[in-house]
């Protein structure tokens, strides 16, 4: 398995990957499948314009994108001590094989030494115990819960907020 920063050249494959994740797990992401499909590929190209403080990693099995995770650092002076993990997803056929953990470890290794970055936050759907467990195994701790964070046609989804403190 290869893990690397996705580039604009990966836009088509990432777009298909993103549509699948949104369709398969609507309660795990704030963006909907319908919104993403309507917007088309152009936002994917923009999203894949990486810097050291904003990037999306892809996990590849051969030439197939099987997982992704994003990182975004806050840009305002008073918020620059925080970064966020976004859009974590692995294809069902590679789950429980260490792909998600490898993606997160790679992300953390890339951002740990960013000057002034003190914490990394994420949100995880309360009904996704496997993801919660993975994050906890890497040192993320809960700091809050947002009830009814997402509203789906048939239900609400609570979101657990987690943080990994990088510096004391």
TrEMBL record:
GO terms for molecular function: acyltransferase activity, transferring groups other than amino-acyl groups. Residues 1-167 form the N-acetyltransferase domain. The keyword Zinc-finger does not apply. It comes from Kroppenstedtia eburnea. The lineage of its organism: Bacteria, Bacillati, Bacillota, Bacilli, Bacillales. Pfam families: Acetyltransf_1 (PF00583). Keywords: Transferase. This is Protein N-acetyltransferase, RimJ/RimL family. It comes from the Bacteria.
